[in-house]
Structures are given as structure tokens and as C-alpha cells.
Amino acid sequence: MTMRTVKTILAAALAACWAAAAQAAPSMIVLSSATYNSVGADDRATAVYIDPAGNIFVTGNSGNDYLSIKYTKTLTPGTPMIYTNGRGGNIPGGIAVDGLGNILVAGMETNASFLQDYLLLKYSSNFGALLSSASFDSGNYDRATAVNTDGQNNVYVTGFSNDGLTDNFYTIKYSPALNQLSTAAYDSGDLDQPFAMAFNGSDLIVAGYTRAGGTNNNVRLVRYDNQLNYLPPSVSFDSGGDDRAVGVAVDSDGNIIVAARQAANMLALKYDSTLTTLLSSAVYAGGTPTGVAVDLADNVILTGYTGTAGSADFFTIKYDAALNAVSTAAYNGGANGTDQSNAVAVDAEDNLVVAGQSSSADFDYFIVKYNASPRLSEVTPLYIGETANVTLTGRGLLADTAVSFSDPGISTGAYSYNSGQITLAVTPSAAVVLGVTTITVTNSNGESYTSAALARTRLRQTIAAGASADITAMTTLGQISLSVPAGSFVGLPETITLSPEAAASGDIQQVGEALFVAGTPSTTSLLNLTITLRYSVADLAGYAEGELSLAYFDSLAGWVTLPSSVNTSAKTVTASAKPANTKYAVVKLINTGGGGGGGGGGGGAGGSGIPAKVYPNPYRPGSGGSFDDSTLGAGIVFAGLGAGQAFKLTIVDLAGQLVYQKSASADASGKYLWDTKTASGGNATTGVYIYYIKGGGEPVKGKFSIIR
Question: Does residue 603 form part of some domain?
């Protein structure tokens, strides 16, 4: 048994497994469809493009002519644009729209010598006028199969050109005026034909196939920079059978997705951004692919057809980023003849559009739009103990999308739908925990999306003017409270809203969740109120419980600690509140390793372990004045530490993210120079910074700024 035979057997076995999984996947939901029949000629759509506004551009053949149509997002067609030269063999291969809204159509046309050439047509928006055109004639057979544009509105066309012996990849870069700028050819020494291309950043990926001997072919991927300089290596994929790339796309991580025909199977290949590693693959048995697209969730969509000539059906399959089948779609036209999808594109809302031809008395364009898989991007807050409208925003949401919560204490009521948003009445009972709850949306086809981060519960309570109140809420760690003495709010009722917040990325002080305390109409002060929050020993990483503090977050000073009472038995920290409309949290004093509470910091006597001066402040390197580098050198000086005094310096930004930390000793004059280099080696940027110093006395906290 040959190695090629072994590969073929393994591929067939895997294809059967993947096909079984695909058959169990939900069917896609059809949003709309459109047919175009020119009467008296076969119409075959070969390419589709969707602009950011959701307009759909389709090109293909009507008999021997190019037929291009612009549709609205609801598939209402505009006036068809015909290109004809009176000769046969004219086949468009690709369509694109540049940054100015001009439409590019590329393909093949038969010239006056009845040889085939590349043809590139540039139309104004809405196909209002043919602005310019370009052709390429090698003197032999030339066929353009794909077109793309870059951010400067340059145009790229790829296809294959015959050198008199065999076909080769041939790619051309044009200026916006369609002047040829550069070319690139790829010749393996045998037959080479590309059928798709896509940009990965500034790199251009061209995909097709190379003859592997006999009738078998291998997938071939070639990478160029945007000047069409070759970037090695080219990549070949060989399953042991006939493998031909027909589509290429790029996901949000820069991975390169290839749709390939593998004998009678649909093959998806996922490579890394440099084409050096095949990350994953999937096979659908019994289908022929024609195109690929990737949506905003990095789902991979392959389209093509199943069956054989005379009885083929549209077939589209969606995989997730790991190439597990998510959903499928099939279409069999009324004539039960040859229905073939030739191209796929994804709009800004992740809806899919596939285009091809359907059999009737002859062949007609058939365009179908499928709904996106459901996905949430925002959920407005839920209020514990209240019935309030909650709005869900995302993609793929429909009027009959079901909404559910994992917490049995949350019930739902009245439901409305408008322009992709769902609004429903939600009632979390008093027993619901303050924080995050899991929400699931499910479409009628069974596709669902679950988020454990977007739906957040809050608690709000209105306090009558002059009245007292004890506001309590349950969290995952237990009960927290806010005590309001009588007379705290005079003249008007006050509404207090509590909402938890996770620690900001890089915050090394906050312990567990913070509590955002909002007051309405109060905007600044909650001086008479007492807050009790909880902590978990598991979050302390060995930090002494008794040294914890309650703090509020100030946009200029960062975490500001409050005189606090720690109950190590109940795992609570209590303090009197200060400002409203800010967050409170249990915090660690990051410089002490178990020392005392923080302060305003800054001045003090030399030799006590407290810096008498931090200078220059602000530090303005290069300014040439008193705020430029000191006599010690470039950077910020911490003075008054004590001669030779050992200390630990910690510097954070206003978000609490660690910038610099150092254990060192002061020089003979009691000074230390920080060169403003961060822990990662870069220069600290313009901003306000907080420092903590521990050594030889009470820990000190202060501020300085850098202006670059």
C-alpha cells in the first residue's frame, strides 16, 4: 500500500466523522432571497462582495456577457450592468469595492484574435458609469479569477497565464487609475492555477493548486508583500488525492483559512499567519466547495454544492474557530435540477450571503441571505427586586429569539424586538446575588449563545429625605451592607445604586470585586454612610488580613485608603464612605508586605525613612529648566531617605497598574534616582503616578507627574 493510498483512506474516514457532526448541526435561518432571469440566456453568479453599509454586489455571466448587479441589504436589485464585446468566452471571476465606493470587476474576455485575456473594469458606485478598464494579454491563454483592493485604493488582480507550456499564477497590482505598478508570477514547473486571494495585513495571500502528477493536484498558497515581492515559503497541502484551493480568507488573529476541494469533499484548512503551521482542518464528505468567508466571531463559512451535475444543491456550512460544525444550509430549486453556490460573503452584522445559479427553464442568478449565529455584545443592567426593561444588543437576534437566565430567581416578562435589539421585562428576586449572572439567547433553529460576563445585577434603593436605611445585598462571598443614618439626605429623597466591578487589568491592590456606589441626586458626598465589604482569604496570596483597608478610587490619586475596621472572623472590612459615584474596594497596601495604613505621603524629615522631597515634579525631560534632569542625572530623585537606608519603592499608575518596583539603598546623601524606566524597560509615559516607599519608618505614599 502506497503512502498516497494510506492518506486517501485516512482522509475518507475523517470526512465521514466530520460529515456526521455537520448533519447534526442546526439549519441556518433564511432572511431573504432573490432571483434574476435575463430571459433567453443562462445566468450564473460567480462572485459576491458586501460593502460596510450592507449593500451586496454580485457579478457573473449572462450568456457570453458580464452581468453585474448591486442589491440593497434586503436584496432589492438595482439596474443590471452588462458588459459585452460580442464574442464568447467572457467569464468574470471576482468583484470588489474600493474605499471610494468604486466597483471593480475582474475576469476573462475573448480578444479579437479569439484568445483569452485578463479584463479589469472599474465602475462608479451603483454602476453609474464605466470609469476605466485594463487588460493583460500574454499572447496565450490568460484568465483572471479574483480581484481585491488595499487601503490606498490600489487594485490587485490574480489569475493564471499560460507561458506556452503550462499555466502559472500571475498577479498584477494596479494604481487607482488602473496603471500597472508591479507583477508577480509563480511557476512550480507544472500546472499552477490560483482562484482566490486575501490580504493579511499588508501581505497578500494567493490560493490555488499545483499539478502533482497525473490527474492529482495539491493546494498551493503563495504569499507576497503589497509590492508583490515574494515572501517564502510557498505552501503545499497534499491529502493523497486531488486537492484544489478555491477560496481564502483571514480571521481576526491573522490565521489564514483555505477552502479546498478534496476529491468529492469540502476541505477547510487553517494556517497560522506566516503559513508555517497547519493549525487545524475539517472535511465535509460529499460536497464541492467554491468559496470561503470568516465572520466577526471567527466562524468559518464554506459554500459550494452537493450532488452531481443535473441534480446538485446549494450547500453552505459554518464552523466555529476550532472548525467544529455550527450550522448548515441547503437549497434545492423548484426544477430539482442543478443549483450551485459559487461564492459567499459576510456583512457587518455577520449575516451570510451566498450567490450562484439555480435551474429553471434555463439557469438564473440565485442569491440567498442567511441569519448570523446569535451573539450578544451588551446587556443593560438587571435590578434586584424590581421589574425593569433590559435591552439586549448583539448579532443574529430575531423577533422570536428566546432569552433565559441561569439563576432560577430571575424571571422574564413582556418582550419586544426592534432592529436587531431585544427588550424584555426582567425581574430578579431579592435572593439573586449581586454581580454577574449567566444569560443565554437561542434562535428558532437551535443555535444559541451564552455569556457569563455581560448580564450584571445591581441593587438600588430610594431613601426618603431625612430617613435612615440599611441597604444589604448578597454577593458570592456573602452579605455586604451600606448603612444610612437618619438625616444623611435632607430636602430630597436619595437613590443609592450598588453595582460590583471586577479589578482592572494589572491592579495589584484590589481584593475581589469592587462596589460602585452611585447616588442620585447627590454627586459628591456620602460622608455619613458606612460601608461593609467582604473579602476572601484565597484572594490575599498570603497578605495579612489585619492589614487590609477599605478604599475608594480617585481618578487622580488612584486608590485612597480609609480608616477601616477589619473583622477577620466575618471576613469583612468596614469604613465610613466619602464620595459618591465612585467605586469602593478592599485593598492591600502594596508596598508594606504587612505594614500600616497608607497616607497622603510626600514630605518629612531626612533620616526617618520618609522622603523629604521628590523632584523634579513635574518631571519634564528636555525642557531645559528647573523641571529637567537634576544634577544626579536623568530621572526623578527621591530624597531624604537617610544615608545608605534600605527601602522598597513601588510606583503605580492611576489605574493601579504596576509601573516599577525596586528594593535598593539610598546613596550617602540619602537619595535615590529613578531613571523613569518601567518594569518592561520602556520609558514611563506622560501622566500622574503614585509612589509607595517603605524603609526605616512608616510607609509613605505620594504623587508625581511626568510630562514628555
Answer: no
